[in-house]
């Protein structure tokens, strides 16, 4: 009988071997990527691998203890043993391979629900991968909601990259070059320290939530655990740094991961040139797509419209998925933590 096999972050070679079997795997599914967010306090990462009769499936999750009150009545003490799953920061969801017919998916859904109940997993929240487009493949298991759009560049050739830009963006890129902005990339410790400093200043200016102030251990993990999957790009005017970004890449896909800029140089359009140069770099090493993401909260805001300048054609779809595996425990947690109020979050017993 098929079941769910659990691979921990300490089993890196096995994790990588399994993920490599899936044609659509990506950097977001690798142990090097999720280790940084484990160090950030996001939870304990696992690869959940299913090998059915004719189909294989893999899901990367962060396991988190459910929030419980410090003092509980005796009958609620057992809640302390429960957990929930969430997609690691970024994108994920199930990877499927083989016979993906409805009977095979139903068999996976049954095995997965049984696994979650047996391991006291109350609920799961997924952020699906817009480039892979896997949001609606397991609707027999998750309640799927399509949210906003994201922007993904076709970088199969430099000509395709340039043709996808809006005319305004081309002019801004030319302006940046004429003004003396130049883009460099590398991956040494000093670059990551420079990025951290500029990134924190950027977060200060936008009033970001405390979660987005990553610690040194987080950046060290990207530096040392993602040696062949992460670079720091810098847009400079002379010796001054105008903008920086951590770019991730692997299996044909490039990703705009984290970014920072100095507003004093905003008029030079350094980020426009940085992203264009990153796209050309990706093309040069055989990447096919460059995913820039979307707006804040999936809105078509100024951030989305900035990114949209890099692909004036079609968008990609961002979707989320929700599943409750133990309804009784879920409702009890919701009552204890939020008085059964609607928080707008999922799971509803969390408020962040």
Describe the SSE topology.
Elements: E1 4-8, H1 12-20, H2 31-39, E2 44-51, E3 55-65, E4 83-86, E5 95-98, H3 102-118, E6 121-127, E7 143-154, H4 158-164, H5 167-178, E8 181-186, H6 189-206, H7 216-225, E9 230-237, E10 240-250, E11 253-261, H8 270-284, E12 289-294, H9 302-308, E13 316-324, H10 327-338
Parallel strand pairs: 4-6, 11-12
Antiparallel strand pairs: 1-2, 2-3, 3-4, 3-5, 6-13, 7-12, 7-13, 8-9, 9-10, 10-11
Largest β sheet strand count, sense and barrel closure: 13 strands, mixed
Number of domains: 2
The number of helices is 10
The quaternary organization reads as: single chain
| SSE pattern | EHHEEEEHEEHHEHHEEEHEHEH
Structural class: alpha+beta
Would you identify the regions where 5 or more consecutive residues have pLDDT less than 50?
none
Round the Cα radius of gyration to an integer and report it: 21 Å
Overall 3D geometry? globular
Report the helical percentage: 25-40%
Percent strand: 25-35%
Report how far apart the termini are. 38 Å
How many β-strand runs? 13
Give the integer mean of the pLDDT values.
Answer: 94
């Amino acid at each position: 009988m098929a079941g769910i096999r659990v691979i921990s972050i300490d089993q890196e070679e096995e994790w990588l071997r399994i993920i490599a079997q899936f044609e659509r795997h990506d950097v977001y599914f690798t142990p090097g990527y999720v280790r940084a967010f484990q160090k950030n306090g996001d939870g304990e990462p696992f690869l959940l691998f299913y090998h059915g009769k004719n189909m294989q499936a893999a899901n990367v999750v962060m396991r988190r203890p459910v929030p419980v009150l410090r003092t509980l009545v005796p009958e609620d003490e057992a809640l302390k043993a429960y957990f929930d799953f969430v997609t690691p920061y970024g994108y994920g969801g199930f990877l499927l391979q083989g016979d993906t017919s409805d009977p095979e998916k139903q068999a996976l859904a049954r095995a997965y629900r049984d696994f979650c109940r047996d391991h006291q997993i109350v609920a799961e929240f997924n952020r699906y991968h817009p480039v892979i487009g896997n949001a609606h493949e397991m609707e027999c298991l998750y309640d799927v909601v399509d949210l906003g759009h994201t922007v993904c560049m076709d970088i199969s050739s430099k000509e395709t990259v340039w043709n996808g830009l809006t005319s305004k963006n081309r002019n801004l890129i030319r302006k940046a070059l004429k003004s003396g902005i130049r883009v460099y990339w590398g991956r040494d410790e000093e670059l990551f320290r420079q990025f951290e400093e500029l990134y924190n200043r950027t977060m200060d200016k936008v009033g970001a939530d405390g979660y987005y102030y990553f610690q040194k251990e987080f950046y060290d993990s990207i530096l040392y655990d993602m040696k062949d999957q992460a670079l720091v790009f810098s847009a400079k005017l002379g010796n001054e740094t105008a903008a920086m970004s951590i770019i991730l890449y692997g299996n044909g896909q490039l990703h705009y991961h984290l970014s920072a800029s100095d507003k004093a140089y905003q008029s030079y359009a350094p980020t426009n040139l940085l992203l264009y140069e990153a796209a050309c770099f990706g093309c040069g090493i055989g990447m096919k797509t460059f995913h820039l993401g979307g707006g804040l909260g999936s809105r078509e805001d100024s951030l989305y419209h900035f990114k949209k300048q890099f692909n004036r054609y079609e968008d990609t779809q961002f979707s989320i998925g929700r599943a409750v595996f133990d309804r009784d425990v879920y409702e009890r947690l919701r009552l204890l933590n939020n008085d059964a109020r609607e928080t707008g979050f999922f799971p509803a017993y969390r408020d962040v």
